[in-house]
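Hi support team,

I'm opening this ticket because the web form for multi-chain structure prediction keeps timing out on my end. I have pasted the exact lines I submitted so you can reproduce it. The total is 203 residues across two entries, so I didn't expect it to be a heavy job. Is there a limit I'm missing, or should I split the entries? Thanks in advance, R.K.
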Amino acid sequence: MSYIKVPYPEIQKPTIYGNVCYPGLVVEVWIPSKGYQSFEFILDSGADITMAPRGMAKLVGVRLPRKADTWIYGIKGQKMAGYKGELKLRINGEEFGVKCLFTKSDKTPFLIGRVDFFSLFNVHFDNRNAQIILERLN
Amino acid sequence: MKEKPEIGQAPLADDVGFAAVYKGKAIATAPSFNRLIDKGEVKRLIGNKDLIIQHTVPEGMIVVY
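Hello R.K., no limit was hit. The queue was backed up. Here is the completed structure from your submission:
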């Protein structure tokens, strides 16, 4: 069984309710002609799918179609166009691919959602030790 | 220098954005991802193992994705 332990990049994040843990995950994204580049994603178990801003599509060499593949709904009920894609990722030397949605916005944060990622890994938020433990499943 | 919002005021929208951190030090920030990666130094460093690109929100802002 293979485990990857990744420390939270920021142990506590201050809010009006006090400090909360911050499940950031530094993940390398494959960029053709440049190699792997590190991005700080948020491991978001509430997100269906991995998301990235449209500029990421350009960086990884994906040309977005004119027509949206789907719509993404935010907490205010607003919708945003989403475009299907894939990212080749690496964490601690483990390479894998995940399906993702590139958003029309260029301000979307980097989120890792459940599609693919939660099939590849069991995820343990080890808040006491401020780390994410990933258990590779296949 | 940007004014810090008072408690009860909405954080400045301009403070939400992206940062490029090289060897632990922020070398560039921008309100959008494209504008960040178009900055010369960031463009030059893409692919460097010491560069991390992150999304940023102002301290104290509640974030729900």
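A quick check on our side: Chain A touches chain B through 31 residues (CB under 8 Å). Let us know if the file doesn't open in your viewer.
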